[in-house]
Amino acid sequence: MSFLSTLPSRIAAARAKRKGPPPCSCALPPPRKKGASAVARLSGAWRGAVLPIAAIAIWAVVSALHLVKSGLLVSPLAVLQTGWQQTLSGALLRALSASLAREASGFVIGTVGGLLLGSLLGFSRIARRVVGPSFDTFKQISLFAWIPLISVWFGLGDAAKVVFLSLAALLPVTAHTCDGIHAVPRSYIEVARAFRYSRLQLITHVILPAALPSIFTGIYLALIYSWLATLGAEYLLVSGSGIGNLLIDGSEQFRMDLVLFGIIVVGLTGWALNALARAIERAVFARRPARAS
């Protein structure tokens, strides 16, 4: 069979190939309702509120039936009244603002130092060999073991507490920044070098964006650790006002209503900080595709 005799069939096959595959006969999925995701989020929020509501209900029943001595467990209504009094008198605002100011100062100082130190350990082999072993040893020391030394060097005021909170934020940010830089796939770097990226372009356009999820994890943990360390510092470095001092005052005066109210405020504040960090993280990562395009 000659080439010319097969030419019509070749042309027909080429045209069919150019037209593309036959249309799919599968039915399209039904359109998603816009309010479905909102309803799902609302139902998920209600499911998360089941356990706190049940705990408050059990607490109210136990206190109403006097199953526990009233001096050890007060009623939810007494805690609510104490919280209202603390709010009207301004004591809650003063204590919470003092604790959050310390937490913010220590968080910012520790995060900036952690980003710098983690980047140094991630990019410099010399720093990793010289400083890396010392940092790995430093991580194994309990954070509260530094309080006696900090109290001697900086006293019992806000300066000592901020130093303590800075250490609490420094460790996770440094570790996750360094690990995120090391975890960047080698193929990314090879492609960037093939496109003749400079050292600065390689860092700013390839390595740091790829390491950003790990860096955000370190910052998120630093926010949590610094808030927890705020209460520890106010417990152990007793000087000035704060939520920790509010709990201490309630314990010394044997006022369980004040203690329980302080615990609730600590939990709600931690929840708010957690939600704020998650919202910022979602906003930052939602903008990345737009920038990349």
TrEMBL record:
PANTHER family: ALIPHATIC SULFONATES TRANSPORT PERMEASE PROTEIN SSUC-RELATED (PTHR30151:SF38), ALKANE SULFONATE ABC TRANSPORTER-RELATED, MEMBRANE SUBUNIT (PTHR30151). The chain crosses the membrane at residues 49-68, 104-126, 138-156, 202-228, 258-277. Gene3D superfamilies: MetI-like. Its main location: membrane. Residues 96-277 form the ABC transmembrane type-1 domain. This is ABC transporter permease. Keywords: Cell membrane, Membrane, Transmembrane, Transmembrane helix, Transport. It comes from Paraburkholderia strydomiana. It comes from the Bacteria. Belongs to the binding-protein-dependent transport system permease family. Pfam families: BPD_transp_1. It is a multi-pass membrane protein. It is found in: Cell membrane.
